[in-house]
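Here is one chain, start to finish.
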Amino acid sequence: MFPDSLLNSPLFGIGLTVILYAFSEILVDRLGLRVLPPFVPACVGIIALLTCTPGVEYKQYAAGAEFINFLLGPATIALALPLYKNRKVIAQQALPILGGVTIATLVAIVVVYFCAKGLGASEKVLLSLIPKSVTTPIAIDVSKTIGGIPALTTAAVIFTGMLGATFNHKLLKLFGIKNDIAAGLAIGASSHGLGTSACAGVSPVQLAIGGVAIALTGIATSILAPILLPILKSIW
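Its structure:
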């Protein structure tokens, strides 16, 4: 289907990602699928194409996609701009933010542990799911530290972010939560950068608080996960 010269070029991964994302934006707009962020059908399309097309392997796609992945760093750093612009609000709400992140981290670890345990997950799988709400680089390190599988952790983090970006604001609206600080904190602490990206078109305060929550949740999870796991194991 694709010539070898294209498959073995970094342009394959870059081009496929850009084309499918652009197509997904058009699809979402034309069909009025506002429930879905454009990257969701784009991801589904990439997975389907890599799975169903003979002769196309993930490593061929990844060779070019790594260039796009590199942009995650600058994109994350860009969150510092709304954070700086809203620094006074963040300083005034420092205590509620710290408390909210701590509670969110504790709840995430405990709920994932008992849900995975109850559903019969192996210990390796369970440990891999613990840092699912943390941004990928930190989640991978936490997974390695507690004995999880980094590749599975990465998949869980991406899936969590996709769910967050798709449903977070709808759930907040359903429960009548309109406060930007509470919304940004909940989104950043539960679905890291991917979920927080959905705040960009809603409120700069939400985006700033979400950015703070991403960093603090990563720190809290790396500290609390190794402490909590022996306690949870002693319970079940």
